[in-house]
Every structure is written in C-alpha cells, then in structure tokens.
Design brief:
Helix content is 84%, strand content 0%. The model has no long low-confidence stretch (mean pLDDT 88). By secondary structure, it is mainly α.
C-alpha cells in the first residue's frame, strides 16, 4: 500500500525522465555547435559550462515544480537515465544526419568554388 506522499512518485520519475531526455537535446546542440566550430577548445569549455548550468537549472526547477523541492536519489537517477537514453538512441541518429548534411554542403561549396576557380583560369588564359 502506498502512502499519500509517495503516490505521485512514479509520475514524478517519468516526468523527470522526460526532462532528462529533453536535456539530451541540449547536449546535441552543444555537440553540433562544437562540430561546426572545428572543436575549438575554448568554445568547448564555455559550452560545457553553459550546458551544465542550463541542465542543472532545468533539473532543479523541475524538482521544485514536480516534487515540491524534495531531492531524492531516484530523481537524479531518472534524469541521468533520460539523458543517457537520448544520447544512445536519438542522439546517434542526429549526429549521423548532421554529419551527412555537413558533408553534403561542404562538397556543394567546394564544387561551386571549383567552378569559380575554373572560370577565372579560363578568363585569364583568354
């Protein structure tokens, strides 16, 4: 038999899990920005701090909203499980798609630049 205070804990576990899953997308955005900036160490350091602060703020705000400020181990566990599950499932798909898009646009830009260089050489030879 569940006590009244513990009656909402499964729902709270699930909601915090979903919040952790959502915070996994924040880490995807961080990885994508890092990838676009050629994995600059200073930018990575700043982004790591920023993402950590944002995720901690979101976690503690949700604990305050859903569990009335009571921080319990199962909440931390569900949040970490949500991030982990997002990273190994949808996070890998997002990484592969972003890499394919990046390579496509990079090849497209190199073809355009090659065409411009070819035209310059033809004009200078004439």
């Amino acid at each position: 038999m569940l006590l009244y205070e513990t009656l909402s804990q499964p729902l709270t576990f699930f909601l915090i899990f979903l919040v952790g899953f959502g915070c996994g997308f924040i880490t995807d955005i961080r990885n994508y920005i890092s990838f676009l900036c050629n994995k600059n160490k200073i930018l990575n350091f700043i982004l790591d701090i920023l993402v950590s602060v944002i995720c901690c703020f979101v976690f503690f705000a949700c604990v305050l909203a859903f569990n009335f400020g009571e921080l319990r181990f199962f909440l931390i566990l569900s949040f970490v499980m949500g991030i982990f599950l997002q990273r190994i499932s949808i996070g890998t798909i997002i990484a592969k798609v972003s890499k394919v898009c990046y390579n496509f646009f990079r090849n497209l830009i190199s073809k355009v630049n090659y065409g411009k260089q070819k035209k310059k050489k033809e004009n200078s030879n004439s």
